[in-house]
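User: For a teaching handout, I'd like to show students what a predicted protein-ligand complex looks like in token form. I'll give you the sequence and the SMILES for adenosine-5'-triphosphate. Please answer with just the structure.
Assistant: Understood, here is the input followed by the structure.
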Amino acid sequence: MDKKRIAVIFGGKSSEHEVSRVSASYVISQIPTEKYEIVTIGITKTGRWFLYTGALENIADGTWEKDENNRTAFIAPAPSVHGIIIINKDGTTEKLPLDVVFPVLHGKNGEDGTLQGLLEMSEIPYVGCGVLASAECMDKVSTNIMFEHAGIDQAKFTWFYSYEYEENAEKCIAKAEAELPEYPLFVKPANAGSSVGISKAHNRDELIKAIEKAAKEDSRILIEESIVGKEVECAVLGNKDPFVSIPGQIAPAAEFYDYDAKYNNAGSKLFIPAHISDELAEKVRKTAAAAYTALGCEGLSRVDFFVTDEGRILLNEINTLPGFTSISMYPKLMAASGIDGSELIEKLISLAFERAGKNV
Ligand SMILES: Nc1ncnc2c1ncn2[C@@H]1O[C@H](COP(=O)(O)OP(=O)(O)OP(=O)(O)O)[C@@H](O)[C@H]1O
Ligand SMILES: [Mg+2]
């Protein structure tokens, strides 16, 4: 059987550039090379696209960018190319057809439907959620509205545009305090990941600072009541009738799971399975499947919840391209459910072909 050519795209302009590099290293290490020829495309923080042909070890730490063999390369939107265009050092160009793309990009321009739009145009099958599900899950205001419509329990929330806040800050604060009368409140830019721009406000002064911080990240600001509970997550895999892993739990070392607690603070812990009853675990899994389907997710997603001591299950968010490092919850939950790294990657690739209506 001929090998299929898979492109892994990593890096990107988002605030999660570094995490993406580590995720991509892991993903690449799990792709079976007897079946696939791997092409790696790195996007720098300034948005330059390169075909990288050097060692896998240089991806995680960013030194791949210095490789002198890097050539500018990008996905062509035209389906006639069905792959990438490479610009050689002497200015000549080359076409390299691809069978499938695995976008290992977190956050803006990678996980939000934009790259997925380009891949739709190119007609190249790709791993993960499509345009709409990616965009809706990336935008926390849209996600909450969709959950509300689907009847999925979540924290009470309100939102406004940052320009509304600039025009009339008092009105926005009054609206937030009227709808969510009890501090602390969580303030989030609608479009952000890895907790960037998120704050917990304990009083009005902090609320104002938090809104100003969030407004730097995005044009829509989400405010939520604060939920006291365990942070429980499920890994979901599939197109229709998805498979849901057993739930895991994160125990942040900080007051909440901020960027530092996620990536720098070794005190944060993962528990697999989550410390909840079997009955609650079953309900969490059912809700994860319902949310995944309601938002039209495909391929994979990590669905994150709060579970309170009273047994309330509240959906927090869906991550369509969750962290994929060797210590990340998504691959760990799948492994705990019997699907190990390379089997998981192969399954994800075959789901991409399945969605595109192609047989592998
Ligand atoms: N309504 C809430 N009540 C209590 N804690 C919250 C609430 N919203 C967020 N948090 C805390 O803040 C963290 C980050 O929030 P959230 O998961 O919404 O953002 P994120 O940046 O999208 O994270 P991710 O990297 O998981 O995509 C959560 O893991 C949780 O610890
Ligand atoms: Mg989160």
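For the handout, you might add this sentence: Residues 155, 186, 188, 192-195, 198, 224, 226-227, 231, 252, 256-257, 304, 316-317, 319 surround adenosine-5'-triphosphate (ligand 1) (CB under 6 Å).
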